[in-house]
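chain below, 105 aa
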Amino acid sequence: MADDHVVAALVGDDPAALARGIVRHPGMHMGGPVTFERAAAHAMGVEMALIATDRPSPLTQEDTALLMERPDTGRATEQELADIRRLEPILAKVFGALGQLLDAP
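prediction:
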C-alpha cells in the first residue's frame, strides 16, 4: 500500500455523534420514507453484522423490545421523528460496538 494511502474511519471517533446525526437527519442517512421501522431496521442490521462476527450483542432486552415495537402506520412525520429520536442510545451502542470491532487487531 502506498505511503499516502488513507483509510477513512467507518464509524468515527464518536459513535454517539453518529447516532445523533442519524436521528436528526434520518432521511439523509437511511433514505425515505422516514419511518421508525426503517430506523429500527438500520440498528438491527448493524447488530446482526456484529453477531455474525461472533461478538455478543451490545443491546439489552429493553433495547430489543424498543426495536421490535410496531407503531401505528400512517402517522404524522413529527411523530415518526419523535419515535426515531428514542433510538439514539441504541444506535450509539451498536456503532460503539462496531467501532471496537473495527479497531480490534
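Residues 34-103 form one domain. The radius of gyration is 15 Å.
thats it, cya
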